[in-house]
Amino acid sequence: MTLHHKISNARKSKGLTQEELSALTKVTARTIQRIESGESTPRNYTLKAIATALEIPYEELLGLNSPEQNLTKDLHEEDSSSIEEDKHFLRLLCLSCFVYLIIPFVHFLVPSFLLKKRKEQHPAIICFARKVILSQIYWVISFHVLLLLTFLFNFLQVKYAASPYVLDFIWTFFFCYTLNTVIILLQIFQIQKLHLASSYVSKTSVIA
């Protein structure tokens, strides 16, 4: 019996619809449909989520003792390829944050759009992407606060100081822009250290 038949039969034996299985696994219903129809081979972590939701041992679902022995190898190779693809997406997401050099106040909408468009299901990827987006939102807030503090400092200097020292706004811009560049580059370097597969397994282990 092929993998997609096993998944379909196991789902039906549990009395679940494709939509209900989708909700349990956090995988889109369209993806479930494609897997069950044999249109696509599921990623390794997707298969683990399905096995957990259907309460079937992962090894049994793979059929390691059946003639499908090549399936594990195929899944492993596809999983490795998928991990690289996911990391590539995260790099692009981080690089998109450099739009702040042109539109510094709403630039975080760009990575937000990319994440929404991708319709990502992997918890570790979603978590990292949200951290990147939040860091940009915090940067915008901090940038505005520093601009206001600079203005307040200059105002008080001019109004009350005998020999006023006015702080040039260019230094505030330079500091904030440099800081954000460092933040983005550090996040790009962190991507290579992400363990996407293991992170997903630990997440899916709580699905019931």
TrEMBL record:
InterPro entries: Cro/C1-type_HTH (IPR001387), Lambda_DNA-bd_dom_sf (IPR010982). One of its GO terms (molecular function) is DNA binding. CDD domains: HTH_XRE. Residues 7-61 form the HTH cro/C1-type domain. The chain crosses the membrane at residues 89-115, 136-157, 169-189. SMART domains: HTH_XRE. Keywords: DNA-binding, Membrane, Transmembrane, Transmembrane helix. SUPFAM superfamilies: lambda repressor-like DNA-binding domains. PANTHER family: DNA-BIDING PHAGE PROTEIN, TRACRIPTIONAL REGULATORY PROTEIN-RELATED-RELATED. This is Helix-turn-helix transcriptional regulator. It comes from Xanthocytophaga agilis. The lineage of its organism: Bacteria, Pseudomonadati, Bacteroidota, Cytophagia, Cytophagales.
